[in-house]
Amino acid sequence: MDQISPKLLIPQSFLVNRDDVTSQLGLMWELIKAPLLVPMLKLSVYICLGMALMLFMERVYMGIVIVLVKLFWKKPEERYKFVPIEDDEEHGSSNFPVVLVQIPMFNEKEVYKISIGAACGLSWPSDRLVIQVLDDSTDSAIKSMVEQECQRWASKGINITYQIRENRTGYKAGALKEGLKRSYVKHCEYVAIIDADFRPDPDFLRKSIPFLDHNPDIALVQARWRFGNSKP
């Protein structure tokens, strides 16, 4: 059987310095890098161009949306009936609806004073405001501090009640639901829920309740959030 010379299959350059593996690998890389890398680089360029085009289209779309919002969007006061509730010297505070403010808590040692103080500082007639602190804390020391804070505000004439329960069924939602079962809240017309780390502005109820009071088709008003510690 005739033997085939390796020179017919392997280039002459591969036969030179056969023991020099590094040189051979380098030469092989030179031979294959162009057909291997060029298509990959082209594909990468096309992908980058496609992503850049998508980002550009997103910017254009958002710009159009912002312009349309600026031109046609109406403020809530313009879209819905909004009549501020004013103090009436003749009828007193009877024109103000009774509002229940619920504050659910769970071991809120650092912030409980903030939310309780903010709720008690709401600009609303005291005889038309019921504040309910729903404490599900498992730490007895924190429970004691929260209760003392409620008692401190109650001594100032604020209608605030400290409420606990035997179990945490339903967690926060369960606490809110349990609070609505109390007899002293049955006459409340609206409910405002404030998380333990929230600090509503004093005019929060005066800005939100009129939307509910004058628009029967509105069942919920969500206030805008701002972060009090956003700046160091």
From TrEMBL:
Pfam families cross-referenced by the UniProt entry: Glycos_transf_2
Report the record's Gene Ontology biological process terms.
cell wall organization
Q: Which InterPro entries match?
A: Glyco_trans_2-like, Nucleotide-diphossugar_trans
Alphabetized UniProt keyword annotations:
Cell wall biogenesis/degradation, Glycosyltransferase, Golgi apparatus, Membrane, Transferase, Transmembrane, Transmembrane helix
Instruction: Please give the Gene3D superfamilies that the UniProt record associates with this protein.
Output: Spore Coat Polysaccharide Biosynthesis Protein SpsA, Chain A
* Any one GO cellular component localisation term in the record: Golgi membrane
Topology with respect to the bilayer: Multi-pass membrane protein
**Ranges of residues in domain Glycosyltransferase 2-like:** 102-230
Could you tell me the superkingdom of the organism this chain comes from? Eukaryota
Location comes to: Golgi apparatus membrane
TM region(s), chain numbering: 43-73
Gene Ontology terms, MF aspect: mannan synthase activity
Query: PANTHER family from the entry?
Result: GLUCOMANNAN 4-BETA-MANNOSYLTRANSFERASE 2, GLUCOMANNAN 4-BETA-MANNOSYLTRANSFERASE 9
Q: What is this protein called?
A: Glycosyltransferase 2-like domain-containing protein
Q: Which organism is it from?
A: Gossypium armourianum
Upper classification of the source organism reads: Eukaryota, Viridiplantae, Streptophyta, Embryophyta, Tracheophyta
